[in-house]
Amino acid sequence: MTISCEETDLKKVEYHTTTMMGRTVTTVTPDSVVVTFSGRGEPTHYSRKTKSGEWASIVESVKDIKFDEIAELEAPSNKRATDAAPFAKFVFETKKGTFESNGFDGGNPHEMLMPVMKAIEEVKKGNEK
Length: 129
Prior knowledge:
Blueprint: E1 10-19, E2 22-28, E3 32-39, E4 44-49, H1 54-61, E5 87-94, E6 97-100, E7 104-105, H2 114-128
Antiparallel strand pairs: 1-2, 1-5, 2-3, 3-4, 5-6, 5-7
């Protein structure tokens, strides 16, 4: 049985990145955007309300994702193995359950996940304004 966003309702998307310096988690829900960092140095926490259109963009970006397949997707590169890129993964929470992607180089997921990667990057730009 293939589970895609057409069959479930998305509740939350998390984008995790890990480097030698620490771990950053970006969490986007219909109501909020939260970015936390923990590791070497001072931990940080940033939160704001989700801006108009951001959640709709996230939902649109996951419409073709087959959640039950993402744990097996091969990453297009493996720079994270030599610390040349952050280790990254997505976690999707839906009404049907929680789905975690296979690991990939930060910013360079399998092509099925690339639309949500771009949507998350746009949401993160909203944190800078």
